[in-house]
Each structure stands twice: as structure tokens, then as C-alpha cells.
Amino acid sequence: MKNHKILIFSSLLIGLALLVSACAVAPTGGEVVDDVMEEDAMMEGSTLVEITLTTGSTGSGLAFFGQGGEIDGQENPVLSASVGDTVRITLVNGDGMPHDIFLPDLSAQSTLTTASGQQVVLEFKVSDAGEFIYFCTIDGHRAAGMEGTLVVAP
Ligand SMILES: [Cu+2]
């Protein structure tokens, strides 16, 4: 009789242990689902690369100047992105002259900024690796120095 009680008690313990482990498995299952959803978001979404450039004079000419981040203060900075990124360039007019920014290889061109302090935003997605020229299309500005490169890493 005593052995029988122990057997029932043991069975109850085992049953309880199974229940607990079943519950413990559930959150892990949830995490797997989350991972799949995150992967989907990464495939559908795109990393946003935000770049701010300010127009100004160099003393001998004109240039785009990096504003903020690693390119801060750089004259016609090399811009960096990776394939699949969305690049958002904010062009701030720093000198009151008309300017824009144009990347002919990517068919991306901002509208004009014509007054000091006025900013325009150009956004485009990069789908190929390579080096792409950017410049200002206003007559004489590219020749005066307003030209740089966007490097898209594979
Ligand atoms: Cu210009």
C-alpha cells in the first residue's frame, strides 16, 4: 500500500515536471517566431543612411561640407553606404547661392535650395555597389569644386 502511494506521488511529480517543461518551451517557440519576423523586416526594410551637407566657399571655390557624424567639417566628403541602403541627403544652403545635388549614375537629383538656411532633402535607394559622383548642377559650381563621391559597399 505504501509503495503504491509512492508510485502515485512519483507519477504526479513527473506529470508536474512535464507540465513545467512544456511551459518553459513555449517562450522559446515565441522567440523563434520573433527571429523570423525580424529577418523578414530586414529583407523588406532598408537601413537609412542619413547625411547632411552644407554648401559653402573654400576660399578659392565652392564645396559641399559634411555636417555631423564622421564627415563633419570635411570638404566634399566621401559618402558611404551599402547595397540595399536608403540614402537620405539633407542639403543645407550655407551661402545664399543656388545649389542642388545630383548623382547622375543613380538618376537622383535634389530640388534647388536658393536661400541661406533653406534645406532640401534627396532620398534614394542604392542597389549596386560602386563609386558614384555627386555634384552641383548650377553653372560653374562643379568646376568651382562642388563634386564628391558616394561609395556603395557590396
Ligand atoms: Cu552649387
Describe the structure.
With 154 residues, this protein is α/β, with parallel strands linked by helices. Helices cover 28% and strands 32% of the residues. The strands form three sheets. It has a four-stranded mixed beta sheet, with no helix packed on it. The chain has a three-stranded mixed beta sheet with strand order 3-9-8, with no helix packed on it. Strands 5-6 form a two-stranded antiparallel ribbon. It starts with a helix and ends with a strand. The model is unreliable at 6-43 (pLDDT under 50). Bound molecules: copper (II) ion (CU). Copper (II) ion is lined by residues 62, 99, 136, 138, 141, 146.
Query: In which range does the helix fraction lie?
Result: 25-40%
C-alpha Rg (nearest Å)? 29 Å
Q: Identify the bound ligands.
A: copper (II) ion
Q: What about the largest sheet?
A: 4 strands, mixed
Strand content: 25-35%
Number of helices: 1
Number of strands: 9
Query: Poorly predicted ranges (pLDDT <50, ≥5 residues)?
Result: 6-43
Shape: globular
Query: What's the N-to-C terminus distance?
Result: 74 Å
Q: What strand order characterises the main sheet?
A: 2-1-4-7
Q: What is the helix/strand order?
A: HEEEEEEEEE
**Secondary-structure-derived class:** alpha/beta
- Round the mean pLDDT to the nearest integer and report it: 82
